[in-house]
Structure formats: structure tokens, C-alpha cells
Amino acid sequence: VIHPLNDLPALLDGELAPLDRAEVAAHLTACEACRQERDRIAAAVALLAELPPPPAPSPGFAQRVEARLASGRKTAQVGSPGGRPRRWLWRGLACAAAAIAAVAAMTAIERQRELALAEHLELLERPAVGSGAAEAPAVRVRESREERLARLRALPPERRAAVEQAWRAFRALPAPEQEALLRRYERAPPRR
Amino acid sequence: MASDPDAALMLALQGGDAQAFRSLVGRHAHAVVAFCHRVARDPAQSEELAQEVFLELHRTASRYRPSVPFRIHLYRVAARRVLTSLRARDHALQRELRGPGGAAAPEPAPARAVRAALARLPDDQRAAFVLGHFEGLSYAEIADVLQLPVSAVKPLMQRAAAAATEALAPQASPGGGA
Questions:
Q1: I need a surface site. Which of A36, A192, B5, B71 has the fewest CB within 10 A?
Q2: Which of B51, B155, B162 faces A68 most closely, judged by CB atoms?
């Protein structure tokens, strides 16, 4: 007799295929040892409910994320083991940091926008994107992100403006239409 | 999926809408902090990790495709971030294994046992186990998040369940368990 011990967690999780489930269930009706093992696993899993709930985000969580986004810092480490800088220095540093953060935030947004344009470049070059009626290409150009980015940057100004215009029109579509358009586009087979 | 408000927010973020990002943080901060806490097992680090998850979500927003449910996308980013951090630092697990939690508030014995059992799981098993048992994801969704074939999730969950069962056997003895 083969005991389906490895299938018991999946059985309890409701993840066994119907045929396997029927087979394991039939085995369980006849096998006391496997029933005990199933109950042992179920009891252990039930104990998970004993864990206290995880901590909620502390107040100001969202603001800290935004601050880190603006400053472009990867890790939140503010340590000054040395002496205390004077107040004027703090003030100067704060102004400089605010200016840098503002520039970084703008740069991050611009960069994000450029990446999004590059990501959707081929779609945005299709006619009638803004009406939502744009047909996906029969085949999709397979380019890396860098290649698309380079192509976007190399566009002549009028074509770049057209892409930007198409992006604005695309963004003005209701979200379901945007999604449908992207899904149609992704279904097109890629080609090099 | 067409009515997924998070997908709409991600598309807005792709268009440079800062408010969309704020909304995403507001809507999912709780879940991300909880996930980081459960997988990293280090209260001091979970919020820091959760912040990094959102920064990564923002940084890679242009790659988001609505064909992937947002929840899967978010957990994918979170799992990658937490597992990378654990691999690099491995401090949380070690700390947990050393003792029952230092200055943390005293816990009832079953909770302590569960915490220790989870901490002893290898990182990938713990991530899969947390996704399945705390976040309510199916095996297919776990596979999607951890970027594994679905066939790899079942043994992962089986080993995690076996280890947890072994560790929790004294707590889950007949009469005290399910």
C-alpha cells in the first residue's frame, strides 16, 4: 500500500486535482494512520490562527515612502556619529536636500514617463490609439527596454510629439479600454 | 480584471500620476507590511522592507501589464525584495532561532511555537507558506508570485507543512488542536 502522505497538505489546501482527490479520499477511509497524519497537519495549520496579527504600518508610512522616493535613497540611514553640526549648517543642508529632492522627484517622474512611453512605443505608433480602435500589429517587434528607449530618444521631434500625443489620448481612455488594447497588443506574436 | 481599480492606478502611475502611487500605497501598505513581517520575521525590518517594496513598485511601474492581476504583481515584487534581503542578510532568521524574541511582548506558548516553526522554514518555503495560508493565494498564484512552475509549489507547501507539523506537534496534540 502506498500512503499518499505527500498529498495530504494539498488535499487540506483544496489543491488536489479531482482524480487525485478521490483517490486520496478513498485511501483515507481505509487507512487510520493517514487519517491521523491528516488531522495532525490540520491541527498544526489551525494553530497559525494563534499568531497575533502583524503590525499595522506606523503613522507616516506613506509619507516616508514618498520622501524616500523623492530623495532616491535606497536605504533609510541617517546617522551622524560625529559632532553636532551648527544650526546654520542644518538649515543649509535642509535647503539643499529639499532642492535636490524636488529635482530628483521631477527627474523620477520624467524618467518614469519616458520609460512608460518606451514600453508602449510600438503601440503608440499605431494609428487611432486614442479612439481605442487601434488594431494590434500582426506581429510585435521584440525589443529590449534599452532598445525601445534608444528608439524613442532617436525619434525626430514631430514623431516624438505624435507619440506623446498618442500617449495622452491613450491615457484618456477608460481603464478597461486601455487594458483591452494592451491585452490585444500583447497577444500579437513577437518577431525580431 | 477590467474593473480592477489597482490596475487602473498602475496605468495612471505609468502616465506619471503621483496621486495614483499615493493611492496604491494607501490601499496596500497594510498587506505589504504584514507580508514582509511574516516572511522576514523581523519586526524592526518589516516596515523598512515594505517601503522598499513600494519604491520598487514605483521604479518598475512601466513594466506592469494589466494582464497580470495587480495582487500577483505586488506580491511578486514583495517576495523578490524580501527574499533578496533575507539572502543578503539572513539576520532575522538567526535572531529568531537564538531565542524567543528578546524585548518583544510576551506571547502565549502556541503563538511562540508557531513563530518559531515559521522561522525555521527555509525562506522560499516560508514565503510560499505565508502566501498560501495567510494571504490566501492558490498554488497557481503562489507559482506566479515566486516565478516557479506550479508543479514546484506542491512539494514546497508539502515540506513546509511537514516541518510546521513536526514543530507544532506538542502544541497541536489531540484535544488541543483542530
A1: A192
A2: B51
